[in-house]
Design goal:
Length: about 375
Amino acid sequence: MHTEIGKPLSVVNDVNLIGPKEGQVLIKTEYCGICHSDVSVMDSLDLTPMILGHEAAGIVEEIGVGVSSVSKGDFVLMTPIGPCGICEMCNLERYTLCERGQTFVFGTLPDGSTPFIKDESPVYQGLGVGGFAEYTVLEERNVVRIEKGISLETVCLIGCGVQTGVGSVLNTAKVIPGSTVLVMGLGGVGLSVVQGARIAKAEKIIASDPVEERRSAALKLGATNVVDPSDNNLVNAVMELTMGKGVDYAFDAVGNSELITLGLTVSKAGGSTVIVGAPPPDEELKFPSSLHLMMSEKRLLGSLLGSCNAQVDIPRLIDYWQSGQLDLRNMISQTYSLEDINLGIQDLRDSNGIRSVIKIHGS
Ligand SMILES: [Zn+2]
Ligand SMILES: [Zn+2]
């Protein structure tokens, strides 16, 4: 539980659960990955106490009145944004902008309530999921049924990092075959961007990260070239690798304004730079020449959770994994118990490994 900005998470035993109410699903959480957004919340969000964890997989324990898409015993993935399907944004197929799906930022269910309670006070639900808990309650549309019996320890990554990374390639940027792609930052999200670019049949995938282990993982997962930005000038390296042309698509999977500017610099005329990582809220973006952007028709695209419609894209990503196109196993470095969750948080802070997963029930 997140109790104070900058403090480690505390493991507590006396949290009670409310629900499932009408339209809600009670889930026994099996595994939950640790994502960068969890750490950002720990470091900056004064909305406490809060149960974090939003890359979660589990088994349905109980359903509320009116729930029809899942039943007790179903294997499910949870997603921070469950599109309602009927609002203006959903009708425009901008599912991550769903007017009723954006409540995840408030740490509550869409109705403003939270399913967790401690000492008679509400406990916020991190990014609308609350996956670092033995049980959680979500709206039906934030729950996606998957095939029974598959490894929840492996597929939980799809809940956030893989949706975000692969989705940014296929849905936001719509990378076309034969393109050149630059991926900056090779954690769980960046490596998912690399895999998305491979699935989209990009011809050249240049992957950049200061950590050697991550660069070699990128090569295994589909990158054609890797660059260590601490040893090389990344702009020069990208220009050299593209024979001075630049790339069709540049992805910032870190959430860093300098890298976004770099993406705009090294993308070709007509190319796109995609913001996939979440930059700090007060960070400004600077670019030396607006005229250059106008003349070159370069595009800057924001991508939230890979612009995914979770109900459609999660099953699609499971298919990619089952058919061998998406490698999830090589993205998981460590699995920790809930008691050791702060070790996993520290790994993420230290860029030690790629993705850590927390075993909650792990049955
Ligand atoms: Zn996340
Ligand atoms: Zn909607």
